[in-house]
Structures are given as structure tokens and as C-alpha cells.
Amino acid sequence: KIQSYIQGSESTPFVIHGESGCGKTSLVAMAAHSTRDWLSNDTVVVLRFIGTTPFSTTLRPLLYSISSQITQVYGDETPVSEDLRDLTKDLKQRLENATPQMPLVLFLDSLDQFDSDDGAHQLLWLPTTLPDNVRLVVSTLVDDKYECYPTLKANLWNDDIFLEVPKMKNDDVKVILTKWLSSRNRTLTEAQTNVLIGAFQKCPLPLFLKISFDVACQWASYTNPQQTIIYQAIYREATNESDSPVRRVISALFETVERSHGEMLVSRALSYITAGRSGLTENELEDVLSCDDDVLNDVFQYWTPPIRRLPPLLWIRVRADLAPYFVERGADGARVLYWYHRQFTEAARDRYLRDHHPKSLIHANLSDYFMGAWANGNKKPYKTRDGTTGEKDRLVAAQPLVFDEHTYNIRKMNELPFHLIRSNQQDKLETQVLCNFTWLLTKMTATSVRRVIDDFKFARSIYPGNEKINTVAELLQLAHHALEKNPDQLASQIVGRISSFDGLEDLLNNARNPHKPCLLPTTAFLTRPGGMLVHSLAGHTHRIYALDIAESGKYALTGSFDATVKLWDIEEGVLLKNMENVGETIQTIRFCKHDDMFVLSALDFGQSYVKVFKTETMTLLKSFETTSGYPTAFAIAKGGSHLIIPEQCELEVIDLNTLTISQKIVDEFLNAMGASATVEARGDIVAYFLTQDFDRKHVRVADLSKPDLPKTTVEVIFEEKYDKRYSATIGGIALIPNKLVVCNQTRSIFHIYSNYGETLTKVIVDLDGITGAHGAAASFCTTFDGRYILVTRFDKVVVWDLEKETKAVMLEHPYFIYRIASRDMSRVVSTSPDKLVRVWDITRGKMAVHVTHQEPRCMGEAPEEIRQLLCPAGYDQLVTMSVGSMVNGRSIVTLWDLGTSRPLSKLKAVSSKPVFWKMLNASTAIASVDKTLKLVNVLKGCIILTFQGKIPNHTTWLAVIEDNRKLMTLSEDQTLVNIYDMSDGTICDVLTHANSAVISDFRVNDNGDGNILVTQLRSQYDCVHIWDLETRQIRHSIRIDNKLGKVALDNSAISSDGMYLSLITYGKSRKKGLLVWNLKTGKQVYHHRKDDTSVLDIVAVENGKLVVQYSDKSICLLNLSTGSLVTELRGHYEFISQFEVTKDNRRIMAFSDRERKLAVWSCDDGTCLGSFTLEKKSKVQLACEGQIIVVLDVYGLTPPILLRVHGQGYTPFPLPDENTDADNEEVDVTMTLQEKVTVLKLWEECAE
Predict the structure, then answer these.
(1) pLDDT digits (tens, 9 = 90+) for 879-892
(2) Where are the beta strands (DSSP E) in 561-677?
(3) DSSP 8-state class, residue 1122
(4) Helices (H) and strands (E) in the chain, counts
(5) 0.85 exceeded by the pTM?
(6) How many Å apart are CA 390 and CA 382, to the nearest integer?
(7) 1154-1169 pLDDT, tens per residue?
(8) Is the CB of residue 1208 less than 8 Å from the CB of residue 515?
(9) pLDDT band for position 242 (50/70/90)?
(10) CA 551/CA 784 separation, integer angstroms
């Protein structure tokens, strides 16, 4: 059958399956050996026995290995990616290399032997459709727990490509036994042979036959076969489920080896191998046996050797007797010894590790070894059987965490936590591993955050009440999204989330004094462990609008605009399954059929589909094309067994058991816009309204059990007396037991109708939390029992208890919310623009409950939204100024003392006109408002003077030059560059182009003197003009070669010495390049482009270097004069929205608003001095010449946070004692900006 498949034209994989020990591996090996005989000698055979080598145990290296082999054989020169997502696509593409002359046949044995990492058992990586000239043969166990076989059955519906390994025939058994006996020069009596064959008929597994043969080889000719262990194994009644014939024969084999080599030596050696998390290396086994005095006392009964260590020959003899049953496999980058078959693992565990005491002792000895307790010359005490005591160096290998700079002790990292937990050494587990900063950081760097969290998961299952372990575990779960790509943020995340905790003092102290440079906050301001937020799950790369929680409450499904669907375990906080390329825009997702299926709506190349999937395997069962031009709304009815899809003038009812349309309900209410209707269902009741209807004031209700009866039409009138700014149209509906819930668009008014729309019984009005101009549209959901309505309010969730008629503010969310879901108010799941899925445990918190008001209150004031964050130049300027806007559009300016994080003053503008600010020093700033410039004393709240003349409206063209004595900006008509005297606000000089040409933009080099000015005229995209500000004359007019494209000054950089001008060119190919000019000579230096990418941003830094951001998201430090690469600045994975360079050009900060992450590098060599991932949308700014990074929540909900570089060789910037003003009372520093009438000696007061 395998030969027919390989020689045939089947385009799907071939599956060999069977129970453990049935001979699948032998069959795969023989088929691979025969393939060239079946096809041709030029056939390419790729064979992998999964789980038997270091590179075949986990998915990523296996795929890399296969792709590399195919690449080499077929001469494909394209590089093989090491990223798992790319590897999956890469493998499918490389299969296309096969030709009729060189066909390709792949054999993958034992899919079930994969580690579960990277979703290997889900088989999403396995091609289900093969190119011509390619065949793929796989084998697996049928057990459901490994997922492989059920997934293959779901994905490959053709039964002809499944082969169950058949039972071996008696004649074949006799032939095999004859050949085996001949190879051993042995014979058996007829009675003995009959017992072997009879035993095989009772247990027809090739594995059993092989073990029975090995046992039979120990028989003498006179051995009575009916008294042998084989006979008893077959005919003795089983005492428990695990007491099978195979297990009994294996146990007999162990007993035979014990008699030959000593029970103590054999039992301990096999115990250690079996107890190892993934087996042991030969050296590890020899070392740990040499530290086991029970073994040594048994071996050295009659003499005392000079070196107390196990003679290597003893283990070699044991292994020789068991050689056929061991396999060397890959684990943690090493070659370990382990049982080649599960039956041996289970038999050894049952024989040697069943009782608690020996099991605990074995694990304790292994934990001592991996801790290095007896390494590095540490002598281990011993006591011989005759009572002699002493201490000896056992000469075992050292166990450091890191062998050298790039080599980690992965064996120790994975084995030690396991054995400490198994041996119940809780104190050592805390101090040496789970609460040890060095351990956490090293393992996180060497493996992954998920591996570290898995250690905590195992520990918490054994020690659920350990507060220290629970606290650190929750901290890592909360910080998972930050640490996943940047483990070096561990210190930052610990200090940012914990200020103090009994028992974790060492962890905190080490985090506050890290070896590597990192950014540490001055106070803990991130979400703290122990609260309601328990998981922040990263994985999606785009917005997440589709969300649902399973009926069990244990799982959640999310669908994103990145075309992926993810299934999460929200109890454990882990990703269970991931499915890619589902659709361009996934809008809605729902579980159905008691979580066995799920349904989603998405777009595929502009066509709308509703797709049904099987949850267990994530396989597509049916796709329904709809007439909507965007993702269609749908509902799940009849207890999850039916799907409702609105279409033009009808509702389609689909039976999910048969995946066919079982009913169509005609309704003219669903007119030509019916496909865009919003629909909800509960049981047989379906409610819907037209989303694209202009007034949206009617909801239709239908009963599926009574399709011939008229539909109910509910007219919904939202009263506008509360606030006319809020929509009176329908924004959403929900069905709860016997009730219809209808809300307006802002989710501020809810109407609740009894009998699914018959009578309006309750109106809920909640205007307090509306975010107005600052927030996104709110979302809402109801719990399944209908008791609670959850409504998002900006960064909070408001919960209405319909039974008690109370309102509670439940969650302080770090970001505004896209979607929210809760099954029963025990867990809540939310999604946000930061692409995280957050899981909240409501049982761990207390909500602030408020009794509902009979009459609605006026809308409360929304928080200000920060538009600008400014810091003055100067090393000792410990202030920052935030510029925000209120919901009424008026500006509010706050001057903050960074030493205390308290406001010094708060100015409220008297008008709503926009203001642009430029800060000069600790108390003075320039404001651009209503076409005028004003010098403002922010601390005192007064305008010092108004500058002469008018400027362009809403201008941001402001530059301070000549050591802050002069101010430069454009005239109102943009034909002049006006230079102001800062002492009196008068225009002291004017620069103009010929014919009064309009200036579109200008730039000044920012070195304090500002000796170079660059201007660009309107519509002159191929020319810039270079001015010498000392002579006030044009030095050069630089014209750009048409072949290079156009340039604009809005993204340019002038070196601090005024030597070079860097511009971004916009070519016809839409690829943006880098153009550098020498401003002294007026000559082009070079034009630079990186392959297949565009230059997005540039910043000039010290010593003739340039920072360049490319469209492939890379950031490079270039030599400004040559364009050669100095180094790549690593740390960001999304586009940078803000670059800031310190005044001394020694450091550069990059902030990505998408990632909410900032990083700081040294401009000398590109060394990363630290990165930090924020939870909330924030503004960031360098202060004190870059020694401090100021972080302020965009919505002004918290005071400024300060980040400083800490680490070996870096002294953090000193701050005043934060407790000096701790006892001072808070005072109201809010004032209105007023004109100051008194004439002042301007600059002297500003300096004061």
C-alpha cells in the first residue's frame, strides 16, 4: 500500500498509525529503504525519526534541517529562515523544487514524539496538499492526547491514505524467530518456541516479541517454558490497568539484569535515567552515581578505593545488556540517554519510582548534582557499611549557569527546577531558582519566557499557597509581552511592578542593581501582581476585534486583522492553537456546539465569508459566501446548534450538525441592506437591526420555532434631554433571559424590554463615563445569565448589576478597549489597540459600587489628553511641561517638579484655540497662539511679552539661536524668516528669498549657536537653500538630480557642526533613499539605499554618525561621511514614532508608539543602554541632557514617571530626596493664564 502511494499521484500525505510497539518505525524505515527501488536512483529521500536526535525533538530545528537538506540537494541558493512562521511557509515553497527527474519523498516517523513547543502537535506546519512529484509519509500513535492522529483524520478525509499497521502473521513470526536465533547461535525446544508464538498471539506487538526473545535467550534447554515469566505474563490475571503482558516481560528483563550486575547499581542507574526530565547524558549518570553512597557502598563492599567514584566499566556492562532498549536523543542541546520506547519508561517508573521515599531521594540527588553541590572541589561526606566516615571529592562536573559568553547550561536550567519540586525542597526552589534574579534572567535569555513560566506553573500546582512563588509568577505573566522579545527588561519590569515584598528582598535588590545596563523607573507604576489582571497575552500583530469565551469559561478565541485566529487557555495564560491566513479582516468570532466548533466572519480578497471550524483541530469545515461587502454579522441560536446569517430580505438558518441551510425566514425588513444587519440570538429568538439604516431606531425580533408568525418590531426612542451630543440611534443589542437589551451608539443609554421586546421595563442612563472627544467608541457585553452588563468607559469597565440595580467601576484598564467578554463575571477578557489580550480574575478584586441615580447626572469632566511633553535644555533642569487639551478643546499646561513628581503650576487657557509651546528653561516657555508668539512665565502664570508681528497659523516653525538670545520663525505670509531679539520681542533681522518667494519649511542645526539655516521654497521639491547665519547670506543653493527624486525638509538632519545635510529622497520607484550633502562645499557626498527598503527617518548624532530607520523596521548607525554601517541598533520590532538625541549627542532614544516601547543607545558604538515597555499610551521626552527619560500617560491620569540608566559602569542620575516634601500638603496650583502689565527686564527674570 505504501508502494502504491509513492508510485501513484496522490497529492496528500500518507499516514501510518497504530498502537505503541506495533512496528510503525520499522515499517517507515523499510519503506524509506525501498523508495529508490520503487521510483529511480535519482529520487531524493528525506528521512527523520522524530525524537531520536538533538535536532528532531522540537519543531523549529526539524523544519530547518529538512529545508536545508532540500535546498542543498536541489541547488536552491535562497537562505533558509530560522523564524518558525517563515520556516512553515519556506518548507511548502521548497517542496516545489521537486521534478519528474528528481522526485522528493519525505518520511517523518513518530509525530507524537515531538515536544509540544511551537504547536508541533497541531500540525499546522504540515502541508496537506503536496506539489507534483512530492510524497509525504508520516507515522503516529492513535492516542487522542497527542492530538496528531485526530488532527490528521480531520484534515485528510480520504480513508485510503491511512494505513493501520497490520497484525503480524504466525508464519512471519516463525521466520523472524529463526533468523534471530541464528544470529545469536541459539536454539529453542519446540515447547519453548510454541510458548513464544502463543504469547505473541495473546499480545501481538512486535515490541513484545523482541523483548520475549531477549528473555528466552537466557533459557537453558531444560527450562520449563510454563514456569517462565513469559508464560506467566500472558496467562496471569492483571492486577491493575498498567499490569500488561509487555510490562511484565520488561519487569522480568530488569530483574535479570539486576541479578547479573547488582540490584542496587541497576535500580539506581535506571531510576536516575527515568527520573530525568528528558533522560541523562552518560557523564551526568556517571557523576550522579558517583555521588550516591548507597551505590558506592554496595560496589565497594570489600575494599576502599583511593578515589571515591564509580568505576566506569560497571555502568558500561549494564548498558550493554540493555543496549537495544536505550536511545540517544537530543535534549537541551546535549545527547542524552533515554528509553527508546514508552513501555520501558512506564515500566521503569512503576518498578523504581512508585514509592514516595525512593522517588524523593532520587530527585534530591539529581537536584544536588545540577546545583553543583559536590562540584568544584566540594567534598561529600560518606559513611561505609562498617561505620567508617570521611569526606571525598567526587570529581563531578561543575554546573554554572553560563559556560562562556554565548554558551548556556540549558541542562541545569531545565532539570534543576523539576527535581527540586519533585523532591519537595521548597526553600532551595525559591532562593536558587524561582525567586533568584540571576537564574530568571539567564534562563529567560537562554530559552524563553514561556519556559520560565512553565517552571512556575509546575511549582504552583504543587505549592498553591506559596505567596512568593505566586507573586513572581504573576509578575512574569503580566510582563510576558515585554519580556518575550527583550528578556533584559526583567529588572525594569520587577522594579516597575513591585516596590517591596516580604521574602523577595534579594530579588528586588538584584533587580535594582543589575549587571547589564537597563532602564529602571523611580517608582513602581505598572500593574502589580496580585490584582485582578492576571495575564497579558501577546501574539497578534494587528488590532483584535473578534473575541469570545468558551462555554466552559476556560478558553478564549481571538481573531485579528493580521489574519490569524488564536485559541487561549485563559486560566493558564498560554496559547494553545494558532491558525494563520484565515481572512483579511476578522470581525466576529463565536464558539458553538458546546465549544466543539467555532464560527467567524472575515473578508478574503474583498469577498465576505462566514466560516465554520472544528475547535480541536482548527480545521475548516464549511465556508458560506455572503453578499455583504464587509465581514457579515452572524448569531448562534438554538443552544449553539444553529447559525444565523442575515441576507437581503431573509435570515438563513444553518444546521451546524449537517452544515446545510435548514431554514430561510423571509422578512422585508431586511431590505437591500439586510446583509449588513447586526443580529443576536438566544435559543429560538433572533433579534436584528439594520446597521446602515440612517435613523436606526427599530429592532426586529423573530421566533425560529414559529417562522410563520409575524415578527415583532420594537421602536426604540432614546431621549435627547440628557445630552444632545450623544447619539439617539441604536448602537447594539443583546438578548438575555426573556429580555431584549438595546443601547445607543455611545453605550450611554440602555433600554431593557421584557418578553424579548414586548414592554420597555427599564432605562439605564450613564453619562458619567462617556469619554467624549478622547475615547474610541465604547463596546459592551452581557453575562450569559443576563445579570450583568459590562460597558467599556475609556480605560475602565463599568458593570451594571441588573438584579441589584447598582453600578460598579470594575477594571482600571491600561488602554482603551476594543472588545470585552465575560461568561459569568469570574473572568473577563479584553482586547486593546496595543494588540494584547488581557485576562482579568474578578474574584480577586473589589469593585467600587455605586447605587444608580434616579435622574442622570451631568457628564463628568474627561481627563485631559496630553499633546506635548517638553523638557528644557540643561543638565540640572528637573522640570517638565505637559501640554494637554480638555474635552472642551481648551489647552491646559502643567509644570512638573521631576524631583517629587508633583505639579508646580497648572495653567488653563481662556480660549479653545490650539497652542504650540517651546520650553526655554525651568519656568519660561514660548507659546504660539492665534498667529502670535508670547513669552510666558509658566510658574507664575503670566505672559511676559508678546512678540512683534504675526506668524503663520498653528505654526511649529520655531528655532532658538545664538545661545538662546534670538528666536527665528516665519512671517505670516511665509515670505520672510524673522529673527527676534528675545530681550524685547522685536524683529531684529529678516531673511528673504528673491522675489519674496514663499518658504515652505526651514531647519537650523541644533548646537546652541545655530549657525546654519536650510530653507525650502514652496513647490521646489528638488532644491534647498543653505544660509550662513553669521553673515545672513545664502551660502549654497543645492539642486537635487531628477534621477534621485524629490526631497522635503520635514524629514532631514543637519549635523551639529553644520558640516552635513541629510535628506530623504522620494523617487519614482516609491523607494526612499538617503542623500547627504557637504554644506561647506555644496557638493553631494553620496546617495544611499538599502536593498528593497525605504529610508523612513534620520537623526544626526555625534562624531559624524547618522541614525537611519528603514521600512523593514531596522535601525542602523551609519558613518555620516561615507554611508558605511557602524552597527545596527537592536531592540525595536515596530516602526519608531519618535527619535530624541541628547544635547551632547552621546545618547539617542527611540520610542515606538505601536509597541509602547522605548530604547536608549550609546551613539559611540550603538550599545543598547536599556529598553522599557509601557502599559499605557504615553508621551516620552529626554530630560537633564538625556540622563532621565520622562514618561507621562497621554490621558494625564498619573504623574510623570522617571526612567534612568542603571547597570555596571553606569551611575544613575541623582535625584533629590523623594521624601523631603512627603509631609507637605497638596495645594491647588491651577491658575488662568493672565497678561502681565508691568514692564520687565525680560531675560534677567527668565534666568532667575
Answers:
(1) 998 888 876 677 88
(2) 565-569, 574-579, 588-592, 597-604, 607-614, 619-625, 635-637, 642-647, 650-655, 660-666
(3) T
(4) 25, 74
(5) no
(6) 6
(7) 888 999 998 888 889 9
(8) yes
(9) low
(10) 9
